[in-house]
Amino acid sequence: MCHAYFIHFERSVLRRSAFKLLEIDDKHKILKPGCSVIDCGAAPGAWSQVAVQRVNSAGANTEFPKGFVVGVDLLRIAPLDGALFLSNCDVTDPATQEKLQNLLPGSQADVILSDMAPNASGFREMDHERLVAMCLSVADLAERVLRPGGSLICKYWDGGQAHQVQSRLACAFREVKIVKPKASRKESAELFYLARLFRK
Ligand SMILES: C[S@@+](CC[C@H](N)C(=O)[O-])C[C@H]1O[C@@H](n2cnc3c(N)ncnc32)[C@H](O)[C@@H]1O
Question: In the prediction, which pLDDT does 13 show?
Answer without folding.
Answer: 53
